[in-house]
Amino acid sequence: MAEQHKFLRLGIFVSIGMILLLIGIFYVGSKQSLFTPTFKVKAYFTNIEGLRKGAPVRMSGINVGAVSEIFLAPDTTGKVLVIMDLEKDVQRFIRKNTEAYVETEGLVGNKVVNLQKGTVDQPVVEEGGTIIGMNPLGLAAILGEITEILGSTKSMSSDLAGIVSKINSGEGTIGKLLNDDRLYENTNMILLTANRGLEAAVSKYDTLATLVADLGKNINSVVKNADNVMYTMDTLMSHVDGVVKDVRSGKGIVGKL
Predict the structure, then answer these.
(1) Cβ proximity of 170 and 179 under 8 Å
(2) What are the pLDDT digits (tens) for 102-125?
(3) Which long-range contacts (CB under 8 A, 24 or more apart) does 179-184 make?
(4) Rg of the chain over CA atoms, in angstroms?
(5) Are both 184 and 132 inside the same structural domain?
(6) What is the extent of the structural domain holding 65?
(7) With 246 labelled, which of 1, 23, 202, 231 sits at a CA distance of 20 to 30 A?
């Protein structure tokens, strides 16, 4: 009997030890920065998409803390308050305009908090300060948008099929152009007429150019003849001047008279 009590006490002791070990593992898991100085910041979200206590908090892909508490905000907004324990070394990057995003990690679906560093023109967040919580784009919203896009695509495909059907049946301007031979023949005749008119215009232009060239040659000839006449007139006037001078000086028969 004493032996049974001994084994019973041993079993109870081992069970209590295992329970304490599991509690310790969960505690350490939720406190990823257990042996590192930390400070607390908080963010308000409309929806956290299944984020849990102990979820890692990352900045630029590096773990900088963990989610320590999650509960509804003590007001009437209905928002979720998430408190995070962040390493003291990154406090200089946590500014008033730092943004916190709840995102899904990998295909498993584990949720993490990613921090977008704030700008240096904003003050540093102190212990217990608040940063900006950005609402996540949930799976339901993504599926809703995809469904809406698919519905629009289906409607467009249906409309396009109707347009193609009308074109094939010869309805509308495009359908008549593609299916009515008379329109093709008329268009071809118009093009031929336009081509002939263009050829006639080019021919007349060539004739006009020839006439202008001939006129230019005639004008050059007239100018040359005018130059010759002027030269002859200058020579004649020179002789007349000589005769007048001889007369005035008493030379010749006329001068003596």
Answers:
(1) yes
(2) 988 766 678 899 999 889 999 999
(3) none
(4) 52
(5) no
(6) 30-136
(7) 231
